[in-house]
Amino acid sequence: MIMKMNEYKRQVITVLAAFLIMTVSRSLAAEECRDTVVIDSVVYTVPTRWCGHKMDSTQIADKTRLVRLPAELCFEDYRIYVLPETRDALVKMAAAARADSIELIVDSGFRSAAYQKRIYRRRLAEGESFDKIVQFVAPPGYSEHETGRAVDMVPSNASFAHTEAYRWLKKNAHKFGFYETYPETKEGLIPWESSHWCYQPSE
Question: Mind listing the pLDDT tens digit for each residue in 35-45?
Answer without folding.
Answer: 999 999 999 99
